[in-house]
Amino acid sequence: MSPSATAHMVQLPNSVHQLPTGSKAMRRTNGQRWIELTVGVKRSTDLPDLSDLDKKLPKDRKYMTRDQLASSYGSDPKAIKAIEDFARAHKLVVTRNEPAAARLGIAGTVDDVSSAFGVTLFDYSHPHLGDFHARTGPVHVPAELGDAITGVFGLNNHRVLRRSRHSATSAKPDFASSVRHWFIPTELAGIYNFPNIDASRQCIGLLEFGGGVETPDVAAYFSKIGVPAPEVAVIAVDGVSTDPSGDPDSTGEVMLDVDVAGALGGGAKIATYFSTFDEKGLVDCLAKVVNDSDNDPSVVSISWGWDENQAFNNAGVIWSPAAIDHCNHSFLAAAHLGITFCVSTGDDGSEAQMQDGRAHVNFPASSPYVLAVGGTTLHARKNANKQMQIAETVWNDGPRSGTGGGVSDITPVPNWQQGIVPKSINPGHFAGRAIPDVAANADPATGYLTMSAGKLGVVGGTSASAPLWASLIARINAALGARSGNFNALLYSKFGPAGVLRDITVGHNDTGGLLGGHYQAGPGWDACTGWGVPDGNKLLNALQGGPSS
Length: 549
Prior knowledge:
Distance between the termini: 55 Å
Radius of gyration: 23 Å
Strand content: 15-25%
Structural class: alpha/beta
Largest sheet: 8 strands, mixed
Shape: globular
Number of strands: 24
């Protein structure tokens, strides 16, 4: 038990936290420092699974409204009352109450927070993660709270989310060249057979964890590629900074998302949600999407993540089980609203840069409630007869540069993947959620033309393939007049086996060569590119209930 915990306190389940390897304690955190936390709250009724939706086509699905989510499955009023009383007794302030997202905001001094939750906070430094505050060990709460609290987020603010934007070249892209291997994003709409649909009534959400939107570059970029600039809304979750100059590297990532989604989204509005890159940031950002009735995105792209596997304390960063559980419940809530989440699998191959002889996958791509998007290397050229010739393989530039994919060691295999995906190759051979589900062009050598800091450049990564898929789904939703939502069960039971996507069968994602060539591409589903890359019109036809479904 922590020195701050007392005899009448009990350990909060799933709250054990380990420090990132290499962390150095500098001092106890200033006791008078103000700190804001997010508290997960027990729902009045557990969210149902997706079994009532899984087998239905979008036109036959009945999704919840946000009011229905809040009233029928929102925070338990008794739990809210118990937590509010607990906060008041410890001189803490309740800053927000969001029943649909099952979260409360609580703030107070570090001393009062530490006393309330039975923890001790220290300031740490890390050679790769910088400075942060954190507690070690589990959270404790008074026994009389029972199971009212499902998680406490913000006691640690080290990084748990990252992404890599790979540049193909530092030289200015040559538009005059008769032979080029990179793409203006709009060209991929034809290669991937996107339906030609006006999606201006759709909204694509982009989750970002640093940087900002460079508004002048948005106008300049879309003028350059000859596409009307999309409407871009900037949502600062919990008042986080959205200054593009404050974090230029992250701003480049933001602009990649905006450029790809805006170029391919068929006129859809873009809503960019900004938060911090720690557990609390992801929890709060997902809650904002669930509650956002103003922008109401039908599809959301996340190009951020990190190794899920806290079982082996060598990853440099550790997810708490409570954070993964809470985020999964948020993804499930979003699925019941008909929101599709497209999440990149990462750019570090099947080892996720760990190089420990084990396979690794990233969270949140490993959530069973998202569409996990991997990456390919795409070459396309018209022949003398003006027919498009396409060659596409698994993206693997090695070492440590290629599409993520593999099998989770902590999230059980969903029933719609059983009998289709392999078990983990790690010791114990856990039967886990396997990723990716789908893929698209990601290799920076065959990358996307984008603009940031006033300069055009060619970049790649699964950071690009995720918003590409989100753009396709926005167009499909516009054509359907309905939301696709989470269609993973249909993908694995019908669409994938029927060849609705274009299968990628060449390559592997063992970028470091430490895993014996795992994983190999092949006919059907594989842990490199899932069921394959888009054939947009075939997927639309399948979701409409056409012959290919």
